[in-house]
Specification:
By secondary structure, the chain is α+β, with helices and mostly antiparallel strands. It has 25 helices and 28 strands. The mean pLDDT is 95.
Length: 721
Amino acid sequence: MQEPAITEELIASHGLKPDEYARILEIIGREPTFTELGIFSAMWNEHCSYKSSKKWLRTLPTEGPQVICGPGENAGVVDIGDGQAVVFKMESHNHPSYIEPYQGAATGVGGILRDVFTMGARPIAAMNSLSFGEQAHPKTRQLVHGVVEGIGGYGNCFGVPTVGGEVRFDPAYNGNCLVNAFAAGLADSDKIFYSAASGVGMPVVYLGAKTGRDGVGGATMASAEFDESIEEKRPTVQVGDPFTEKRLMEATLELMQTGAVISIQDMGAAGLTCSAVEMGDKGGLGIKLQLDDVPQREANMTAYEMMLSESQERMLMVLKPEKEAEARAVFEKWDLDFAIVGETIPEDRFLILHGNEIKADLPLATLSGSAPEYDRPWVETPAVEPLDAASIPTVDAIDALKALVSSVNYCSRQWVWEQYDHMVMADTVNAPGRGAGIVRVHGTGKSLAFTSDVTPRYVKANPVEGGKQAVAEAFRNLCAVGAKPLATTDNLNFGNPEKPEIMGQFVGAIKGIGAAVAALDTPIVSGNVSLYNETDGQGILPTPTICAVGLIAAGEEPILGTARDGHVALLIGDTVGHLGQSALLAEVFNRVEGDAPHVDLAAERRNGDFIRDNREFIKACTDLSDGGLALAAFEMAEAGGVGVQLDDTDMRQLWGEDQARYLVACSFDQAEALMVNAGKAGVPIRSVGKFTGDSVKIAGSEAPLSELSSLYRGAFAGAFA
């Protein structure tokens, strides 16, 4: 087949700038072949090379005594004691999900699950963080249905519980939804599998499903803005098969028990190209591939297509040759392809053969390590005008509460999570809808807690404080269920980094995240950067999603009770009454103004430690975030099926979104003990009301709990079902 001529148009269509192409010519000393151009495009795009973000990612705290493996591998690995480790990561599938919602979201789940079991861990939990455009936008309904069905369809069939997540709506996502997928698994801490190849002449083995043309160029597409040609990009979206993935996981974990695996890598973004290059580069070796031996499900595939296909459910492994027969038998038992497609070589070469032709012959280490690294110009996000609280009209408290609980941003997400199987494997302790998800570590007395958090409007107003707040809220969500926060993974979703103001948002958020994970001892152990989330020049809200993992040790009880009639409502933490960027302002008055709330990291740590240390006196607990005290009190009352009366009448006290705060429900005697202990610990605490009756009473206004509950539980289905 005649390969196309290398023209300026072809180079540009591969996402390569003229100076980047000039660098390629300098490296190889000649014009690249079409396949080589595709390989450079894949390895040097934003999605794979992190060329705009590497400088700043290096500033994030990634180490700690609990960290076994930080960023750089398929997933992060954290010690949870007793020779066990939790393996976890979060990644985006934003662009594919906007183009083809079901398959985009489904393959996002599949990809993150492979990242986990590639390390030798059996997945035990999944989460997702979803951002859609405004409810009235003509595409939002299709995206919500497609994405939710894709996540449920893949995760449910694979058999992993989806235990938490978040969903938001804002006009900024009208042209570019966000689908961030998280997975966590369990492994023995001395049996973690890594991707660095070792040994010369070792077989390179292709495992799993056959290669097709789906997803060709997907990583390059994910590194570009959208425009009117978006529909033409549909073929770059992969197609997933969760049943094949399940078999691939079982085969891979069984294979690992044979001792045959030297190194292993899943084929994710840029498929065979990225997996082979990363394995060779980390091991200081070259890789030779014979594409005739690659299992193919379509006829007449070219070298270019095979190297850049992002067909799902595939792995690449370097094998101990004496174990070939044993390894092959495992994969044949699971009815999966097992093919030796190449070998490791001592030379620094990435050599691709197809038929009798050399389709690519590139310096492997340079291909991997010489990707452009940009120090993008950036401007600090200017300080916003403080909110004039006096400009906020007086509003009836119950009317305001009704506006929030009937909004698609603050109503129950029951319609979403009921489509996910959150009880499969039978170890889920805390299901979605009640704070952080909790999963038992099977066969032990331990449990792991998982949460996902970010407030994008805070980040836009003040990237540093917004970055801190995302980490702090994740920290609080874990503490509120009694889990000790261990570590975090991030998914940094931003617009076009070539715009200094967007790059400034990214830099500010990184500074805030870095300060918070350092202060709260929750290092970043894995993550993903998703840039160019723009359509026709309109960027998303900056959305640095934080997922955090916490441990409930053997002998410790989680905080999972509900408010009951007669319980006291205690507020822990200081309230100034910060209404800037608040849910009240946005949902009731349609105003987005003011600064993000200040995050006092010392107070976050102190108050979180206090909650965990005093769990025996706490019946129910939630952190305060969007909607402040009023929304938190309603949600706690609604979960317990009991009314609530709040003593505060001041709007700032009721709706302020000050940080480092928790609402606790407990008996009178337990409240006394908590107050005594809080005094000793220097933790602010006060009674703010009680749980009683069957109505919600706030600031002289009242409504039946049943009426508010109906609004809260029915709003999402009413909008999208």
